[in-house]
């Protein structure tokens, strides 16, 4: 997967960073194709659960880095072509194996969730609930579910208020997109397993919303165990 050309400045807030990373990921994955118009700022703000000025700031960054261009009176259009931007992920993500990824997730995810339970503002929790609702509407589309799952985790990372953690977890997500995990999902992410994940993420959301650190951390540990089992079955 081509690496995003957006190098986000450290001064950018975590919520703006979340929007930048979410939109750039969608562009790189071709959810938004070259020359395609992005949804209106108002729609993006609603979909991502952020303020409209946050979306505008993120779009400024994307335009500055050549991923989109604005047309007065028409909107924002994708200019970044993944096909012409190289054919590999970031070197670290490309060189990370399945077990190495699991080790890193085991270090980051329980602590990430713990910090989000403590720090996540109510508005961000509401936005997380909206993403969960979209996840629960997926019945059999594995790709759509994985994309929403990534958004869900990005929102949790952003909810920690720690930009360094957000950056580290973005690299984890990039590593998770490597071929071994894509193949694993094609094989194992059946409608019944999607339903099981939906129940689990519902429990995680409820733990975050109720500020239950123990329940949220326990969920992440159990999820890691289940993913480990899938990896073992894929060997």
Features:
single chain, 235 residues, Arc Repressor Mutant, subunit A, Four Helix Bundle (Hemerythrin (Met), subunit A), 2 domains, 11 helices, 2 strands, globular
Per-chain topology:
Layout: H1 14-28, H2 41-48, H3 52-64, E1 68-71, E2 75-78, H4 91-95, H5 98-119, H6 122-137, H7 142-159, H8 163-176, H9 179-188, H10 191-209, H11 213-234
Antiparallel strand pairs: 1-2
Helix pairs in contact: 1-3, 1-7, 2-3, 5-7, 5-8, 5-11, 6-7, 6-10, 7-8, 10-11
How would you sum up this structure in a few lines?
The protein has 235 residues and is mainly alpha-helical.
How large, in whole angstroms, is the Cα Rg?
17 Å
* Number of domain modules: 2
Number of helices: 11
Q: How much of the sequence is in beta strands?
A: under 5%
**What summary fits the major beta sheet?**
2 strands, antiparallel
In the CATH hierarchy, what is the superfamily of the largest domain? GntR ligand-binding domain-like
Low-pLDDT residue spans: none
* CATH arch. level architecture of the largest domain: Up-down Bundle
**Number of DSSP-assigned strands:** 2
Query: Which overall shape is indicated by the principal axes computed on the Cα atoms?
Result: globular
Helical residue percent?
Answer: 55-70%
Mean pLDDT: 84
Q: What structural category characterises the helix and strand content?
A: mainly alpha
How would you describe the overall organization of this protein?
The two termini are about 25 Å apart. This protein has two domains: about 15-85, Arc Repressor Mutant, subunit A; about 90-235, Four Helix Bundle (Hemerythrin (Met), subunit A), CATH 1.20.120.530. With about 240 residues, it is mainly alpha-helical. The protein has helices at about 15-30, 40-50, 50-65, 90-95, 100-120, 120-135, 140-160, 165-175, 180-190, 190-210, 215-235, and strands spanning about 70, 75-80. The protein contains eleven helices and two strands. Strand 1 and strand 2 form a beta hairpin. The chain has a two-stranded antiparallel ribbon with strand order 1-2. Helix 5 (about 100-120) runs antiparallel to helix 11.
